[in-house]
Amino acid sequence: MARKLAAIVAADVAGYSRLMREDETGTMTAVSEMRDGLIAPSVMAHGGRIVKLMGDGTLVEFASAVEAMLSAVDIQTKLAERRSNGAETPPMLLRIGINVGDVLVVDNDVYGDGVNVAARLQEMAVPGGICFSQSVYLHVHNQLQLNFTPFGERLLKNISQPIQVWRWEPPGSTTSEIHVDRPGDPGEYRFKGQQILDPSVTNLLLELHMRSSRLAVSEAFDRLLTMIESGQGVDATDVYRTLGEELNGARLLLSGIMVERVDTHNQYLADGARHQALSDFFETLTDSNRTAYAMKLIPAIEQILKSQETTITKRRQFMSLIEQFMFNQYLPRARSILRFAFTLR
Question: Checking CA distances to 168, which of 35, 144, 153, 289 falls within 20 to 30 Å?
Fold first, then answer.
């Protein structure tokens, strides 16, 4: 066993399981040809070593971060050219992650956080792109005339400290076609949009949703109070329906914005569940909290509406109750499973 500093490149084929379902033989042939005809020559030309092959995945070691980046960019650029020329059937899309770190070498294999970080970065990369750590950026940003985009600090699964992440994509790929599968719908949805990479934009969109929701809740209160003052009975069903109608209207304001979702470990979801309209995302999130919402909030809302307090006091109590739910439960959950947003054209 020995330790050394190395640049580790992890790559795998995006949508590999789907490709295998559609054409097992063709996919295996395309992956093999890509490795033998493109990946292996590029790695060799840049002084790297293929450590191992794992199904659709490839793990590569370089002595230089600059050479690792050049090889990764070379591979992604040539794959993009082959796809645009229709030279690949089925078309291959790679996700690549790069990290510079200390690794443990055992029987020509490599282990340790240096490898694990590269693997997690690969999972974060968009198909056709590269994600890499700050340690790589420090080595390459003054050496290479390439456009790198900051991706912010990210918490990676099983990595104790957040990692500053950067990304590279082929020229012209900032606007892409996004495939969206919506469960229960028979058709496929495709959107063209520009990806917003700054997570602060997502926070602004969340704030927009919260502001529109507050207005919707206030409108719901007015409707319910009018029902009571006109002598109509108000029960849990009325409260539930009225709030739902107003909040659905607030969500429609965000129907033209796409978001990328991640799981609770800050990892990407499967392709079919990842991209979602922001309005649909909030609807799904509300549905997932529906039981707690109905059991805890609605009885308390009924009590407030039927109390003998003044209208001003009722409104304050009503809004306070909703605010507590939104900020203590709803908003933190939304932030934890949203990555960033797409604007649609």
Answer: 35
3-state secondary structure of 74: helix
In 3-state terms, what secondary structure has residue 95?
A: strand
- CA 119-64-58 angle, to 5 degrees, is 35
| 2-173 CATH pick, 3.30.70.360, 3.30.70.1230, 3.40.50.2300, 3.30.1330.40 | 3.30.70.1230
188-240, pLDDT tens digit by residue? 444 445 556 566 677 777 777 778 878 888 888 888 888 888 887 777 778 77
Q: What are the beta bridge partners of residue 111?
A: 104
Judge contact between 339 and 258, C-beta under 8 A: no
Closest-CA residue to 194 (of 257, 272, 282, 268): 257
Q: 131-162: buried (b, 16+ CB within 10 Å) or exposed (e) per residue?
A: bbbebbbebbeeeeeeebeebeebebeeeeee
Rounded Cα gap, residues 75 and 52, in angstroms: 17
pLDDT at 140 exceeding the cut of 80:
yes
pTM over 0.70: no
Residue 182 has pLDDT above 50, yes or no: no
Domain locations along the chain? 2-173, 195-344
Positive or negative torsion for Cα 234, 238, 242, 244? positive
340/172 Cα distance (integer angstroms): 20
Of 129, 161, 124, nearest to 148 by C-alpha is 129
Q: Please, which residues have CB within 8 angstroms of residue 284's CB and are 6 or more apart in sequence? A: 276
The answer, yes or no, to whether residue 256 has pLDDT greater than 70, is no
Q: Strand 275-277 to strand 257-261: parallel, antiparallel, or no bridges (unpaired)?
A: antiparallel
